[in-house]
Every structure is written in C-alpha cells, then in structure tokens.
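Need tokens for this chain, all 569 residues.
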Amino acid sequence: MPLAEQSSSKHGAQEPLSCSWRSSRHVDFRCPEAGDEEDGLCILHSRAPSKDSERFYSRFNEKIAGGIRDFRGVYFPSPISLSGIWENAVFAEATFQAHLKCESVIFQGKCDFDFAKFQSADFLVAQFQDLATFSYSEFFGKVELTGVTFGGVVYFNQARASERVSFGGSRFKGFAIFDGTIFGKSAGFDHARFEKGVSFDHTMFLQNASFDRAECSGDCSFRRTIFSNPESDQSQTKFEQLRMYIFTFRETRFSGEVIFERIWLRGSLDFETVRFDSNFFFRGGVYEAPIMRLESGSPEPSYQVSKTLNESRDLRVSPRILFERVFLGDSARINFEDADLSRTTFAGTNVKEIRFRDVTWARMLWNKRVTVPRDFRDASEGFWWWIWQRFKFYLSTNTVADQFTNSDLEQARRVCRDLKASLDDQKDFSAAADFYYAEMQLKRRQLQGIRRKPYFLYWLTCGYGERPFRALIVLGCLWILLTAAFMRTSFMANQRVHIRASEYANSKSFSPILEEGLNYAARSLVLQQRSSYLSPFDESAVRFTFVANLLGPIQLGLLLLAVKRRFRR
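Here are the structure tokens for all 569 residues:
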C-alpha cells in the first residue's frame, strides 16, 4: 500500500474530536461525547438549528438507562418530561428551550439546576429529598412549584423569573435562600411552610407578591428587599394570616401597596429603616401563638389556630413591633386598624402622617404595665383579682414611654408629641390626651432640681389638665384641710345671728363649728368670704383666708380646664 494512501487510511480511521463544550463553573469538566455536530459540540450540547431532536432524545435516554445523571450544559430543543425516581440530578447550565415537566418526580439525592435556563417549568408536587440548588437560574416563562417538598437546604439565590412563579403549599424542611432573586411578575408563597427559616435579602418583587397563610418556624428575613417597581401602580404585596417566628424588613422598600393582616408571631416584627412610597395597611393585630415545628415523619400541620387563641383575643400578648426610623414617601399613606400596638416602637418615625383607628396602646399605672382580660372567666386568679385589674386598667393611661431608656427620654417625648398631633387630627381626643399626659411625664423626668417642682404640682393637682376627677379630689381635699384649719382659729361675728347667740354675747371671738368652717372655707375658695357673717379675728385666720383666696381660684381653674378637655372628647 502506498504511503500516502496508508496515511489517508489512518486519518480516515481516526476517532472524531471530543465535544468542545466547557463549563463556566467547573473548568476541569470535559464532555466525553463526540463533537460530531456542525458547531463542534456533541448532540447533547449542540445549539445548532439542524440538531436532530430524535437522535438527541435517543442519546439522552441511553445515558439515563446507563445510570448517568449528569446533564450539565445540555441543550433541550423541545419539551421534555422527567418522571420516576432520580438518585442525583445535575442540570447545571442546561438550557430548556421548551417546557420542562417534572410533575411528581422524586429527586432522592442532590439536585443541581444552577445557571440553568427555563422557558417554562412545572415541578408540581415534586420531591427534593436532599440539597436543591437553582442559583443564578433564569425562568423566562411561568414556573409551577406548587406542593413541592424540599427536604434539604434550598438555594434560589440570584435567580431571575420573568413571569409568574408559584410556591403555593410547598414545604421547605431545610433553610431556604432566595437572596438576590428577581421576580418579574407575581410571586406566590400562599400556604408555604418554612421549617428552618427563609431569607429574601436583596430580593426584588417587581409586581404582586402574596404570602397568605404562610408559616415559618425560624427567622424570616427581607433585609434590603424591594417590593414592586415604582413605575407600576397596580402592584400589591399581601401578608395575611402569617405564622412566623421573627420577621425582619430592615432597609426594605415598598413602592406598591402592602397589606399586613392578622399576623401570628412568636418573636418580633421589624420595620426599622423601611421606606414606604404607597399605601400601607396593618389590620387585625399581631398575635402570639405557638409555631408548629415540623419534623420528618410528623403529621401534616393544621392552619387552624387553637380555639382559645382564636376566640379570646384579649388574652393575646402582642409581640414586639419595631417601626423605628421609617421613611414615608410623599404619596405614602400608613394605616393601623384594629391592631394591638402595646409593644410597638415608633422612635425616629414621623408618626404625624400615620392614621390610627381602633388600636390598642400600652397602658401604664404607677410606672408598671397594665394588662387584663375583658372576661373574668379568662382570669385564672379569680373574679376579685379581675375586678382589681379592671380598676387599675381604668386608672392607667396610654403611653409609649416604657419602650425607652432614660437616655432616650427626649426621643420618647418627641414620639408622644407626634402621636398626640396625629390623633388630634383624627379626632381621637381620648388617646391624644393620654399621649399628652405621657409627654408631660417624660418632660418632668428630664428636668432636675427646682425646675421639676412646677411640673410635679401640675401633675399632682390636675394630671396636666387631663384628669378632672383628680382636680376635683384635690379641690375637695383643700376644702377639708382649710375647714380643719379655720376650726382651730378665732373669728368674730360681723352681724347679729340667732345661732350660738349666747357664745357671741359672752366672748368677743370664737372658733367656728364644723358647719361654719365648711361654709367659710367654701366661700373663701371662690373669693366670696365677705358674704359670710364670720370675720377673721386672729392672724392665723387671716393667713388661712389668704391661702384659700390664692389656691381656690387656681385649683378651680385647673378643674374647669380638665373638664373642658374631657368634654372635648
């Protein structure tokens, strides 16, 4: 055989070159398939328009039959349906040019969809029993993840979804991470359950988002998250009947309407440094209820709250709500309706722009919080204990001062003043009066020495003009004390009277009896003592009369001021 022919024959017998596809994540990865397509790639990785779909799926099924589950970078040109049980699955950097259907598929091992591209996908009631990663993946169409069970940690961080995504009823047994994900259309997490916690930090919900009846046994974080595109006026975010542990929205921005309604919390709800550019509705209060921690093999949870907590609203203990340093945009309308705000802080927030309707504030008496159930049947200590608690509750006042330390008194006073102004504008004069009372109490605590005395007297005599009953009691005490003082001094009669005539005839001066003392003290308090038949005889009687003439009109004026403010309500 000639050398040239031999060389040609050897060249024709050579194996085709291997596939030239390279992974951007794993530089050492090499595809073992032959690069026999026109673009130098194998039938699995090729993106050539002339790619033979029948040959592609034949080779794909051969690899599955051979137990191979690594399909990273594979280009699926037409719809594909996965079924059965998969030990491990690697579809990282894969491209699903058409619909992917994984309904009821069970992924027993680790499942990797990082950097994958989906035209649309359906994972209805699928099971991911181990780690599942969808980091940096892109979804161009609708994604259905309803009823999915994630047994391990889930990564959806930095993913992109252009259309609707639904996680309704899905169960996350491990920690779920959605950091940096962008939801272009609606995102639904209704009835979803997060057993170890979830993070949506730096996530963007550009349109509607719904978390109705979702449950999270761990921390739920939305730090620096953006809800709704400012250019869209139809977007809405709903958090209704959630059951959470710790809910954090620090530095988050709500550009569209947001609704919080009947939230069940074990820990706190943190809105610190949040920005609102549209309507915000907080309705139905925040309740403290046990969170069901679901373990493997435990029965399915129930979304029904226990009868006691559901029917006896007055037994609830409101968890802490932080509404501090919140920024309100020009078009923001903040509304709290039928909410328990007894443990809510507003430090650094302009509460003048907030509307409050049928809310419950913290109640303080003798520098202690006062809480009491409305129904004595809920009081375990007995009926008379409940009566005593109700009496203390009646004497107590609304306040937010208990939420601040002594170093923050000025800030607390500013919050009380702004709350009073807001409630005055809303014609809620009763609550506004309590916050004026709280503001004055804080101001008195700030002052030292002699400057504090006038505020103490103002508080003692009429409760800063907000306690008419106290002013009346002080006026009555003043009347009784002056009566006792006048009965120990000497008077003379300035006209002839028929009572006690013998005493007047036998002595130049005499001490008034109780009836005369009461009458003269009452007249002196209203500057009408000259109409009495008694005239002071000794220096003590003159001094006490002067004191009555001085203090009586002042205390009477304070009483009228307090009554006027009371009737303003």
